[in-house]
Amino acid sequence: MRIAMIGTGYVGLVSGACFSEFGLDVVCVDKDEAKIARLLDGEMPIYEPGLEQLVESNRKAGRLAFTSELASAVAKADAVFIAVGTPSRRGDGHADLSYVYAAAKEIAQAIEHYTVVVTKSTVPVGTGREVARIIRAARPDAEFDVVSNPEFLREGSAINDFMRPDRVVIGATSERARELMRALYRPLFLIETPMVFTSVETSELIKYAANTFLATKITFINEIADLCERLGADVHDVARGIGLDGRIGRKFLHPGPGYGGSCFPKDTLALVRTAQEAGTPLRIIETVVAINDQRKKRMAQKIIDAVGGSVAGKTIAVLGLTFKPNTDDMRESPSLEIVPALVKAGATVRAFDPEGMGEARKLLDDVVWCDTAYECMGGADALAIVTEWNEFRALDLGRVKRLMRQPVLIDLRNIYEADAMAAAGFTYVCIGRSGSHGNPS
Asked: For the whole model, what pTM was predicted?
């Protein structure tokens, strides 16, 4: 079977590479000829563990190709996946579907035989129907079905998420389309992966409901963390105590500076707007969006408070800029609120991230960029950990203390223990745990 994957962003590139690993012939298409040239040279446009090796092995096997020519890729394909961006639309927060609809128009002109057109991008309810209308209007003679097949890939572990998913959701209106999708995902049937077949509209809503629920869970534990700080409780013990309840589960109960990335911020906002227009507002999700926005802004003040209420003339070292580890994605990262606020308050900010420096330089101004974590700490009055990269989890605390002007560490990911930091002579500030202040020596 042949697949055309329209879009070589995060979803398209990972999905295309993984489908080729299943043994299918995949052509990934992108209008950006420079990106295609980089891919042909073996250069990945995103950082994702294992992706470069996966792409290289399947290209060598002849199962994975890249092109900027959509028509030829679609003409030969049994299934065409639309995996283009759906960013938040400026002004109203709705998903911008212009790229999806533009792809549908081009696909319509290239179809030569029965083809399943699959929306892989995250799209609001009704998008699949509109894609079908666009194709039918352009090509009344075309034989096709439109299917919704949302992705549930976590950045940093996307390949495993594709190869061993919790479930695959497929929204289709015909048995012919369902059979083709079953064939594409046959390797997952063999490992008994649950396959959820629904209507197109239900499939579209499942994706938004899943992401907004997880965003709500993160926001809930962040608010509980704030309460823990006031009451002298430990948020990690609270999270474990409730997470062991099978009805709640342990995942996404880790306090921090707020959620970010390519999915949760735009998907929560898009669902809020969809619900408002449908006349059934989602008050919980509206509140989640507002709380998360406020939380990111408050994290800068937490750092400022830790150094005495003012950072004017002081140097703050920031470790981690991406919204999570194991990615170079800076979209909606808490650092995009924290760093500018510190600079505006008069601080000199020294920053380091293992993979996100290239993207961060495009988005942050007036920052001293450093090549290593320890270089970042030189002469700092405080050190803030914003992203929990593994290499930050076992810092040489003696060396850290010698490098810094003042031994103050603000741990926005709670990767250290308060007692150990106090014993090492640090003033330690974390999230949602009592006894967070050590005694510097």
From this structure: 0.92
Q: Which amino acid is at 304?
A: I
Contact 172, 224 (CB under 8 A): no
Within 13 Å of residue 62, how many CA atoms lie on the same side as its CB?
0
CATH 3.30.450.20 fits 2-198, yes or no: no
Q: Which residues are catalytic?
A: 263
Of 55, 45, 54, 114, nearest in space to 80 by CA: 114
pLDDT in tens, 393-438: 999 999 999 999 999 999 999 999 999 999 999 999 999 997 544 4
Decide if 356 contacts 334 (C-beta within 8 A).
no
Q: Which of the 8 DSSP states describes residue 266?
A: H
Q: How far is CA 100 from the centre of its chain?
A: 20
* Cα 103 to Cα 361: distance, rounded to the nearest angstrom: 31
**Is beta strand 2-6 parallel, antiparallel or unpaired with respect to 79-82?**
parallel
156: number of Cβ within 10 Å = 17
**Helix 98-110 / helix 127-138 crossing angle, nearest 10 deg:** 40
What is the H or E stretch that residue 210 is in?
helix 200-231
Q: Which amino acid belongs to residue 149?
A: N
Beta-bridge partner residues of 140: none
- pLDDT, tens digit (0-9, with 9 covering 90-100), for 34-83: 999 999 999 999 999 999 999 999 999 999 999 999 999 999 999 999 99
